Amino acid sequence: MINLKQSVLASTLAISSFGLGAVESYTVIDLGKIEDKPFFVYDINDADEIVGYSYSANNIPFHGVAVKDGMATDLPAIVNETTDLSAYFKLNNNGVSVGFSSETIIRSDQSVNIDRAIYTDIINPELKLVPPLDEETPLNMRALSINDGAFIVGVADYNAPDDEYISGGDATKSAKRGFVYDSVNDILTRLEPLNYNQYYVSAALVDINNNGLAIGWSEQYKDSFNTLRGYYVNVNTPTELIEIPASAEDRSNRAMAINQQGIIAGMRNVDRSFYFTGYLFDTNTETLTDIPNLKEDYFPQSVAAITTPYDINSENQVVGISLIEIAPVQYHAFIYENGETKDLNTLIDCKADPDAEQIGQPDWVLQEARAINNNGVIVGNGFLNGQKRAFKLVPRHGVAPKPCQDLVIKEDSGSGSFSWGGLLVLMTLAGLRRRQSKV
């Protein structure tokens, strides 16, 4: 493999320090549709290029999509007789995106679909496949991230020949394994789980920065109890997995994203076994910082994740989702910066149209922030006037968001006021009186 150096974070770039001031508000941009279908976005690079997938009529992931200069276009998929299913998850600053596509193959005289890890240049699309871990029996495989050096990481099903069930006996079915693929030199490396003891467990790699530091999660069995362990590894030394010390023995943590400075955003159990909240871990100083929830002390009975970070940029700004309502369960998109977690719905204008009256309910509901680039531009998914839409948020420094306000009409006497809802009631009653006067 190419020798990759791991950067050392200067003390001036510690988790508590940020190069930019907090953003006062954002302009929200509707990313539209492709062929009259809404699409779901996953990532944005520093050139504001965006990738994701479009929806089919029944809302299943349908086809990979790229957005450049405001135009959405299809990305390549494996061509099948029944489906050309594909989705793209990450995009580097050279315009290369990774994901998966479904391939129909014949196995044991039956037609089956398997996921193949794919990558393509979004400007000059040409579908390329990551080689499977087992050439003789390809299994499901997805590419989840790519750095600017074209190192790809992901997760694949793999039938390890030495796996055993924790209760004893050979494990004959596949478990998940993380992989690193050097697409320049065509070198594929499989990673074993953290503290692998030949028990039947799964693991994955989910993100990688430009210094070759990759992050993932690994199952761990202890006393018949299963937990997840986040870890990081330099892809130049793929056997040296380092556990993220974010959990007690009976708790789990999952690494989600890593930035160029080696700061990891993840989620972990803290006080309760079944609830996940966000954290930051600095691989240089080995310090851990919790990300506050949008609503503190919110522990619903049926929700596993309270706060989930999806991405972190070079300014240590983190975006993701956080719980705001228990019944029914509702999440909002958040940004964490300067030690504060903020609801992105409070940082946009009540109406996307700057000429619209700021009255009543907002037209946008920002449900999840999926990615933030190094310029602070955010992409995610939500609802526009009740319809599924992908959005882009552009920072506005020094500009306060315009809140929604009720229309107020003063009485003739000059004292008191009526809300918009009260005005509608009065108009209705006036109409009734007019009709009665004609009888």
Question: Topology of this structure?
Answer:
Layout: E1 25-30, E2 33-34, E3 37-44, E4 50-55, E5 61-68, E6 71-74, E7 86-91, E8 96-107, E9 110-121, E10 128-129, E11 141-146, E12 151-158, E13 175-182, E14 187-191, E15 203-208, E16 213-222, E17 225-234, E18 242-243, E19 253-258, E20 263-269, E21 276-282, E22 287-290, E23 307-312, E24 318-325, E25 330-337, E26 340-343, E27 364-372, E28 378-384, E29 387-396, E30 409-410, E31 417-418, H1 420-437
Antiparallel strand pairs: 1-29, 2-3, 3-4, 4-5, 5-6, 7-8, 8-9, 9-10, 11-12, 12-13, 13-14, 15-16, 16-17, 17-18, 19-20, 20-21, 21-22, 23-24, 24-25, 25-26, 27-28, 28-29, 30-31
How would you describe the overall organization of this protein?
With 439 residues, the protein is mostly beta strands. It has two domains: 11-406, Methylamine Dehydrogenase, Chain H, CATH 2.130.10.150; 407-439. The protein is 4% helix and 46% strand. The chain is built from one helix and 31 strands. It has one helix at 420-437, and strands spanning 25-30, 33-34, 37-44, 50-55, 61-68, 71-74, 86-91, 96-107, 110-121, 128-129, 141-146, 151-158, 175-182, 187-191, 203-208, 213-222, 225-234, 242-243, 253-258, 263-269, 276-282, 287-290, 307-312, 318-325, 330-337, 340-343, 364-372, 378-384, 387-396, 409-410, 417-418. The strands form eight sheets. It has a five-stranded antiparallel sheet with strand order 2-3-4-5-6, with no helix packed on it. It has a four-stranded antiparallel sheet with strand order 1-29-28-27, with no helix packed on it. Strand 3 and strand 4 (50-55) form a beta hairpin. The radius of gyration is 25 Å and the shape is globular. The termini are far apart.
